[in-house]
Write a structure and sequence with these properties.
By secondary structure, the protein is of the alpha/beta class. The protein has a single domain, classed as Alpha/Beta hydrolase fold, catalytic domain (Rossmann fold, 3-Layer(aba) Sandwich), CATH 3.40.50.1820. The chain is built from 6 helices and 8 strands; from the N terminus they run E-E-E-H-E-H-H-E-H-E-E-H-E-H. Strands 1-2-4-3-5-6-7-8 form an 8-stranded mixed beta sheet, sandwiched between helices. The protein is globular.
Length: 219
């Protein structure tokens, strides 16, 4: 499998966000990752999912929601990791930037983890032409609040079976969504899906969801 990898700095409202763009040959679509609180574009779990997506013919964009300086401050103060409006604005900006970036597929999905899932849902509601599917892994979709009923993109919520509190929060969010939706519980998984085989199960569900809503033929 040929995989083109490009390190980028995305200009956005006077700042630059570090990003890694990976595109297999004849990519069927591209998945934009929004990492969770306290994480980054180098999240081991997100990279695992991204590797599987490359095999399945999807490109990926993993980027840092915070600048390097902001990350240093946030590690001490947690100032921005739960700032959903800020995270959403960053994701929306990156989504619009990618839509205009040469050589990238026109079909796009958001993959959000933890607080990144809330940002993905709010961004999807605000920019329905930018994103065509949304996936949440161990997410906090409840933090998307009043944006949930406005989401048009088909949305998949994935939660670990032993993540009791987050299961309840996802069930509430599921009831608020009006789009095509599905709620999946991965048995034996905790919040971070560190148990053997559980992250691979997440990958299976992600690919199934993308295959359902993305035609097989490339752009």
């Amino acid at each position: 499998m040929k995989l083109a990898t490009t390190e980028l700095r995305v200009p956005l409202d006077g700042i630059e966000l570090d990003a890694d763009l990976r595109l297999p040959e004849h990519a069927r679509g591209i998945v934009i990752f929004a990492h969770g609180s306290g994480s980054s574009r180098r999240s081991r779990r997100n990279l695992h999912v991204a590797d599987r997506l490359h095999i399945e013919g999807f490109g990926t964009l993993l980027f840092d929601l915070l600048t390097a300086d902001e990350q240093i401050v946030d590690e001490r103060t947690r100032q921005w990791r739960f700032d959903i409006p800020l995270l959403t604005a960053r994701l929306r900006g990156v989504g619009r930037w990618l839509a205009a970036y040469p050589g990238t597929p026109a079909w796009r999905a958001y993959f959000g983890a933890s607080t990144g899932a809330a940002a993905a849902l709010v961004a999807a509601a605000a920019d329905p032409t930018i994103v065509h599917a949304v996936i949440s892994r161990g997410g906090r979709p409840d933090l998307a609040g009043e944006a949930l009923p406005r989401v048009l993109a088909p949305t998949l919520l994935i939660v670990g079976g032993d993540d009791d509190v987050v299961i309840e929060l996802n069930e509430r969010a599921l009831r608020a969504l009006r789009c095509e939706k599905e709620f999946v519980i991965v048995p034996g998984a905790t919040h971070l899906f560190e148990e053997p085989g559980t992250l691979d199960a997440v990958c299976d569900h992600v690919v199934r969801w993308l295959d359902r809503y993305r035609p097989a033929a490339p752009d």
